[in-house]
Amino acid sequence: MRKQYFLLLLIIIAIIISCGGTPKFSDVAGKKWKLIEVSVDDRNIFFNRNTLSSESAGDIFTFNFDDQNINMIGAPSPCSGRYTLGDNQAISLGSMNTTQMDPLRQPEKLRESDFFVYMQNVYKWNVVSRKLELYSKTENGTEVKMVFSL
């Protein structure tokens, strides 16, 4: 009887380990991601997407990856470029093409220029609880974490 319980326990552990594997980039690509949080040092900026939508600003700070390109919308300028994937969820963005438009306001205390700098400096991605996390740096090297939802 002990052997059966031990074997059952091993099977359950194997199933748990296999289900919690490394996320696949194919699960990230082709979807519209909306910024919901930015953390720089100890400062957090949270985005209320319902409020932004009610103010007709629901598409700001969004992006999507396609085959090898990233297309973004700042606040309100569009931007696009190419990206390259590396090992261990590494990612780098190439030069970006931006159509600079004058922002009507600075939503949620994040300047569009900062958003584009953070995106340009992204070096790693991860999916945690169905949210996409992008890791980046400011112009002076301070760590930044951006969290996106669908």
Task: Write a structural description.
With 150 residues, the chain is α+β, with helices and mostly antiparallel strands. The chain has a single domain, classed as Lipocalin. 22% of the residues lie in helices and 37% in strands. It is built from three helices and nine strands. Strands 1, 2, 3, 4, 5, 6, 7, 8 and 9 form a nine-stranded antiparallel sheet that branches. A hairpin with a 2-residue loop joins strand 7 and strand 8 (131-137). The model has no long low-confidence stretch (mean pLDDT 82).
SS class = alpha+beta
Q: What kind of oligomer do you see?
A: single chain
What's the β-strand tally?
A: 9
Please report which band the strand proportion falls in: under 5%, 5-15%, 15-25%, 25-35%, 35-45% or over 45%: 35-45%
- At CATH level 3, the topology is Lipocalin
Helix content: 10-25%
CATH architecture: Beta Barrel
Q: How many strands, what sense, and barrel or not for the largest sheet?
A: 9 strands, antiparallel
Query: Which value, in Å, is the CA radius of gyration?
Result: 19 Å
How many domains, as an integer?
Answer: 1
Low-confidence stretches: none
Shape: globular
Give the end-to-end Cα distance, rounded to a whole number of Å.
Answer: 47 Å
Enumerate how many helices there are, as a single number: 3
CATH class call? Mainly Beta
Average pLDDT over all residues: 82
Order of helices and strands: HEEHEEEEHEEE
Comma- or semicolon-separated keywords:
Lipocalin, alpha+beta, 150 residues, globular, nine-stranded antiparallel β-sheet, 22% helix
